[in-house]
Specification:
Length: about 270
């Protein structure tokens, strides 16, 4: 009786153990299959700013993403208004090869055109707004400056005066303006950076705007809510880039720069 009683128990335990093993193998196989399937894919993000002409100080900004290989560009959200340099745009120094035409210079009142990485975010708050994923953040202090004088060391770089040092004479002209609410958030556009050519333009940011008809000295200005939405959209996995082009140059370069097709971005609708 004892032997007959134990055999069904042993068979049941073996069945349970076998089932559990099969489930573990199936789960592991699915995980490996999914990992190998997704491994070659990667996310790309582009922020595209289009201006009607090189002298336009108003533009249209739209956000795009795709998953490669094989994915198509998809616009996320609606296009929004962007304010550019008071004198329009000129070719900057970024990820693109040198281009013919007007080149960006320090103090020319033009936004750099081309392809640029998104860099450090500067702000007055202890941390980035909730929902943001961007890893590069610096809380601005009263000893911070972004050097725009080509004759100074650290040109076109953030520089913090050490606590034990007195403020140099040049600091007031170069310091970050903590008291300006429009500059509460500043997203660095890596034009002429990190290797900075003196005089080729500096301190280019995405930041808030002073008014609907207020051009910038060379930055890209957005409404505050649009800027915050953009901050939340940025994903370091997408290696986001800012692309600034005129309508004419977009039609010339979109294919070689692997950008959204002109008809999908509405190039013909830019005023």
């Amino acid at each position: 009786m004892r032997v007959r009683w134990l055999f069904p128990q042993a068979n049941g335990l073996r069945w349970l153990a076998g089932t559990a093993l099969l489930l573990v193998i199936a789960a592991g196989s699915f995980w490996l299959w999914r990992s190998f399937l997704l491994w070659p894919f990667h996310l790309e993000q582009r922020i595209i700013v289009l201006a009607a002409t090189a002298d336009s100080w108003q533009g249209q900004l739209s956000c795009w993403k795709r998953v490669l290989p094989g994915g198509r560009w998809r616009r996320e959200g609606e296009p929004i208004s962007a304010l550019l340099g008071r004198n329009g745009v000129a070719w900057g120094i970024g990820l693109h090869p040198p281009q013919p035409g007007l080149q960006k210079e320090e103090g020319d009142g033009r936004t750099p055109a081309g392809r640029f990485r998104i860099g450090l975010v500067l702000g007055t708050a202890p941390s980035l707004p909730p929902g943001t994923k961007w890893p590069l953040y610096h809380r601005k202090s009263e000893r911070d400056a972004w050097i725009e004088n080509p004759e100074l060391p650290h040109y076109n770089h953030l520089f913090t005066i050490p606590a034990e040092e007195e403020m140099p004479e040049w600091f007031e002209a170069e310091r970050l303006r903590l008291e300006d609410p429009v500059l509460e958030w500043m997203v660095s556009i890596e034009h002429n950076y990190p290797e900075s050519r003196p005089g080729a333009g500096s301190a280019i940011f995405l930041h808030g705007r002073y008014g609907a008809q207020a051009p910038t000295a060379g930055c890209v200005a957005l409404r505050k809510r649009d800027l915050l939405d953009l901050l939340r959209w940025l994903d370091p996995r997408g290696r986001p880039e800012l692309v600034v082009l005129t309508r004419e140059n977009y039609l010339r370069l979109w294919s070689s720069w692997a950008l959204p097709r002109p008809e999908t971005i509405g190039v013909g609708e830019i005023r």
